[in-house]
Amino acid sequence: MTRSLVIKVTAGAEAPERTNQALTVAAAAAAAGVAVSVWLTGESAWFAVPGKAEEFPVLPHATPVSDLLQVVLSGGRVTLCTQCAARRGLTEADLIEGIRIAGAPSFVEEVTREGAQALVY
């Protein structure tokens, strides 16, 4: 059985610690060889757009969100919620290379796979 971790990030700039914690856990799991899937929803949707993660405030004693996102992208999957993208007028052409847009059926498929663990931040 393959271990996998699905993390749904619901916060953005309005909750910087929660946002950074979610991506820190995702990056740590990816670095440990766990199959990681991060779902960007709500205000975290903006991190899928080039340059937006770099605008996020750097928290004391924390790795910048842009660096964490790159670690996840290099070893895992990042998905932008379909509805969240549509509400913000974002299409695949607007996103960082490697980030896909998918909806609830894909999320449900990922979190119900054998060996999957899901976290929501």
TrEMBL record:
Name of the featured protein: DsrE family protein
Organism: Actinocorallia libanotica
Taxonomy of the source species: Bacteria, Bacillati, Actinomycetota, Actinomycetes, Streptosporangiales
